[in-house]
Amino acid sequence: MSKIIFDSGISLDGFFAGNGRSPKNPMGGVSGQIHSWMFNQKAFWEYLGFEGGKEDGPDGKFIRETIERTGAFIMGKRMFEEGEASWPNDLYKADVYVLTHEKREPWVQEGTTTFYFINDGIESALDKARKSAKGKDIRIQGGANTIQQFLNAGLVDEFFIHIAPVFLESGIRLFEGINKDKYNLQILEVIPSELTTHLKYKLTKK
Q: If you compute the radius of gyration of the chain from its CA atoms, what whole number of angstroms results?
């Protein structure tokens, strides 16, 4: 049965993205600071369809496992708009459901990625993603506000965060406005690494 998960990098002071996000400035320009561990891995560049990366170690294994377990994605309009102009074709290799007020026909890419534009809320997107995932997990890709909506609705089963050893001081916090009484949280795994610390949590609704 599909689990609802998210997998996000944050700074040590809890920021998911910087200020001034736009298609010309994705993530507010802090992606290199938060995701340097990922950019260092060959598994990440393989996923994009390019050669790159210096290492193929435990971090890369983590990336491959997360990719393998994911059968569908959900994201917000802002994240989609930031990536639309620059993402390579067939990046997600699965159906992607974009939460938006914009009416738009599905964007069918060459390969196995199709973007669907959902105008009637997170429950509708989740229902459609479950059918697409065919038993694999559904990944709430971002941004932070979209993840927060799913958390506060009590819909998340597991999450993974990768804490980069940097302070950003300002930006968009991943866990801003979260209902602290919604879940019991259990640490499933802690994996230290040179450029990040991987934490895996299980969530059970109270």
A: 16
